[in-house]
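To: structure desk
From: M.T.
Subject: fold request, one chain
Message: Could you run this one when you get a chance? Sequence is below, nothing fancy, just the single chain.
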Amino acid sequence: MSATDATQTTVAKSATDLGPQTPDDGARPGAGEGSTVTSGSSAAAPASFVVNIPGFADAELEPEPLAPEQIVRGEPVVTGKVLWESPDGRQIRGIWQITPGVVTDTEANELFVVVSGRATIEVEGGPVLNVGPGDACVLREGDRTQWTVHETLRKAYHISL
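Reply: Done. Structure tokens follow.
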């Protein structure tokens, strides 16, 4: 796409509204110089966007107790925070954290990015996934997993139910 075909916009969004995005001409909080979103001129496609969540890595999270049968080894503690949920409850975005230990889970359709920490995720009948900061991972609905958390892991996630 050439510069003449592109439309440059800056998007301002807060951590509490991560739903469908609409471009505006205001400055984005926390953005450095030149932080713009460039989108094509197609009116049918939604605008691309960037979300800056100041303090994301240090966000206060709420307890999410594990069922005792999920704990394989150690004393892992899970915390999290839902940042956005669709009106029908089928799309959820948030932050999730787990301390070291080994746990099992049955997954939903999920895309996540590791913010900090490290873990090994063994998918029953599938791959062994080693994840760390900056890694993006997709888990399929119904995947049975065992998480070995080596360092407290914090992730940003999007779940589709």
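Reply (cont.): The mean pLDDT is 78. Let me know if you need anything else for the meeting.
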